[in-house]
Amino acid sequence: MSGKTCYQCGQEIGFWSVFKSMWPTRIFCPYCKTKNSYKYGHMIGLAFAVATIPLAYIALVIASLSIQNSNEFLPVYWLVIYLVLLELLLLVTTWSLRRHGQLIIRK
Ligand SMILES: [Zn+2]
Predict the structure, then answer these.
(1) 48 neighbors 93 (Cβ within 8 angstroms)
(2) How far is the CA of 36 from the centre of ligand 1 (A)?
(3) Going by fewer Cβ within 10 Å, which terminus of the chain is more open, N or C?
(4) What value does the mean pLDDT of the chain take?
(5) Ligand 1 centre and the CA of 45: distance in Å?
(6) How far is the CA of 59 from the centre of ligand 1 (A)?
(7) End-to-end distance of the chain based on CA atoms, in angstroms?
(8) How far is the C-alpha of 44 from the C-alpha of 25, rounded, in Å?
């Protein structure tokens, strides 16, 4: 078993299908529409959710360092930086899931 091929049809599940899935146990194969799931998907999803909390703080630190005077824009800066950091974390997670993960069929 690998983290890239569908358990059901054996086709390679692309990066985007994993990236856009909201949770590691809800990976839909673009070819046969089978719902695949990563082994330990719930734990991985939970770890991701926990990791978003320190990420919010890091985004706040970066945002307040990058603007000195105009504090009224701080929430906007924070949100933009936070979303960028989230996407980066999601990219890394998707990459490592496809590389190291194990797809299993979801019953
Ligand atoms: Zn498939």
Answers:
(1) yes
(2) 8
(3) C
(4) 93
(5) 22
(6) 38
(7) 17
(8) 9
What values do phi and psi take at 102, rounded to 5? -130, 120
| CA of 56 relative to ligand 1 center, distance in Å | 36
pLDDT for 107: 62
Query: Using CA of residue 15, residue 20, residue 23, residue 25, what is the dihedral sign?
Result: negative
pTM of the model: 0.87
Residues 6+ apart with CB under 8 A from 77: 63, 66, 67
Q: Can you give the residue ranges of every domain in the chain?
A: 15-105
Cβ burial, residue 7 (10 Å; 0-12/13-18/19+):
buried
Nearest to 1 by CA among 102, 96, 95: 102
Please give the distance, rounded to the nearest whole angstrom, from the Cα atom of residue 106 to the centre of ligand 1.
12
